[in-house]
Structures are given as structure tokens and as C-alpha cells.
Recover the amino acids of this structure.
């Protein structure tokens, strides 16, 4: 009985209205790699079924240059979002680039640079640029492609995603802060994060 009375007294005394739920944030690790090992790291992200996020720590911003020599179609997100386009027009630019990459088997390279593009809250939508882009393999399902492809973009009436298509994100945000910087922009827990640096002496 004494224990129950003590519990009741405690409940009466605790200012529950001032107590908020504790938000636990998971740690998002970054794997350090050297620039010459980038191709191997991209293969590892495939094996893990993860979309890669590459944090460019090089002074020369060499990651985007390296990827430009692949079969790549790039979107400069700071440049695109700073233009006079409306949100709907930006979404259409992203959709058209996504579909083009799928049809041609190219890499879709989203270059965030030093920006914080609100992909999840602003620029993603189911029928233009879905959040499935950030989940490995999900955007290339027939159901997803049926929403994205316009009739004139189909091959003989069929939505096609050719081998070689993949999505890669790059960012210039520091390794120590990228998780807090980008957590509202993209689903970090679904990505494979690599911090890319030059080899010592280069």
C-alpha cells in the first residue's frame, strides 16, 4: 500500500505538461575513401542496395569532376533552385532528367554542393520526382515508372529502364555536420555515405 501511495504522490508532483518526449537521433556513419577508390565504393553501395551520398572533402571539389567522365547526367541543385522557375517547373526539370537517365542507362547525379535543397518537403512528388529516388531500386519499378513517363517518352508504348541507371548524390557539407545539415533534405538512413578525400601526397 505504501508503494502505491508513493507512486500516486509522485504522479501528482511531476509537472508532466512540461516534459517532452526525448528525440533520439541515430548516428549516420560516413565511410572514408580515397578518390581513386570511388568506383569501387559505388559498386559496394550497389551491393548494399543503397543510393550513395558522396561527401567531397577535396579542396578542388574533385568528386563531381571524376563523375563527369562517367555516363552521367547532372543536376546542379543550387543553380536550379536559384533560377526563376516555379516549384512545379523545377519538379518537371527533375522528372525529365530522371526519365532520360532511365531510358539511356545513365547516372543521375544530383549535385547539392554547399546547399540544403528541401527535396523531401518541396521538390519531391509522386508523379514527377518521387522520394523513391532515394531508395535503391524503387524508382525503376514498373509502378513507379508508369507515373513518371509521359506517353511520348515511352519506347513503343513501354516504360524502359536500361542497365547502368543509378542515382548518386554529392555534397560539399563537412563530415562533422552533414547529418544535421541534410537530415531534412534527404532520407539519410537509406543512403550509403562516403567521405571522399585525396590520397596523401596528392
Amino acid at each position: 500500500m505504501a508503494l502505491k501511495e508513493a507512486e500516486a504522490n509522485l504522479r501528482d508532483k511531476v509537472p508532466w505538461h512540461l516534459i517532452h518526449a526525448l528525440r533520439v537521433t541515430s548516428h549516420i556513419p560516413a565511410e572514408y575513401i580515397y578518390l581513386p577508390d570511388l568506383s569501387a565504393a559505388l559498386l559496394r553501395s550497389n551491393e548494399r542496395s543503397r543510393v550513395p551520398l558522396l561527401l567531397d572533402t577535396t579542396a578542388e571539389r574533385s568528386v563531381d569532376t571524376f563523375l563527369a567522365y562517367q555516363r552521367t547526367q547532372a543536376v546542379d541543385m543550387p543553380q536550379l533552385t536559384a533560377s526563376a522557375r516555379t516549384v512545379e517547373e523545377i519538379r518537371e526539370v527533375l522528372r525529365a532528367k530522371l526519365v532520360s537517365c532511365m531510358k539511356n542507362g545513365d547516372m543521375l547525379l544530383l549535385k547539392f554542393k554547399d546547399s540544403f535543397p528541401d527535396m523531401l518537403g518541396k521538390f519531391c512528388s509522386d508523379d514527377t520526382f518521387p522520394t523513391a529516388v532515394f531508395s535503391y531500386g524503387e524508382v525503376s519499378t514498373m509502378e513507379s515508372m508508369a507515373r513518371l513517363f509521359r506517353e511520348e517518352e515511352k519506347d513503343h508504348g513501354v516504360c524502359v529502364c536500361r542497365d547502368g541507371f543509378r542515382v548518386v548524390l554529392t555534397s560539399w557539407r563537412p563530415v562533422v555536420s552533414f547529418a544535421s545539415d541534410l537530415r531534412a533534405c534527404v532520407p539519410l538512413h537509406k543512403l550509403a555515405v562516403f567521405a571522399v578525400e585525396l590520397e596523401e601526397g596528392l
